[in-house]
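Weekly puzzle thread! Below is a chain. First person to post its structure in token form gets bragging rights.
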Amino acid sequence: MVRVMASGVFDIIHTGHLHYLEEAKSYGDELIVVVACDKTVRKKKHEPIMPAEERRKLVEALKPVDRAIVGYEDDFFRVVRKINPDIIALGYDQHFEGLEEKLRERGIKAKIIRCGRYDGDLNKTRKIIEKIYKKKGLYKNEENRHS
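Winning reply:
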């Protein structure tokens, strides 16, 4: 049984996420996904749109995912030890400097695999947010109908 670990924010689920998780699952029998906790998202990216537990539930409902958990804010390696993966699948745009060395220093023998890029039109959360923002005028009539 080969256990694969993937991780991410997953703030607005999109086809880029699905592509990443499908590829990650193809490397093993079980896929466990670590969803970044809200504090980590705030520190490294932006104010989360959805709370961590809601993001976790959505990720866990995706077909390739066997289980999803919310990560810890203090130590990435703590969750890696807990999952004990055979493979850590990184997204094409995820950067963990010196990860292999840091894993070895901690006695973690997981193999690191870099998943490929998905070039869909809306393959990143920021692209989706920008598109919605640009189209905000289109929704003014909707607001009036519901008033």
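Puzzle host: Confirmed. Bonus trivia for everyone else. The chain has one domain: 3-145.
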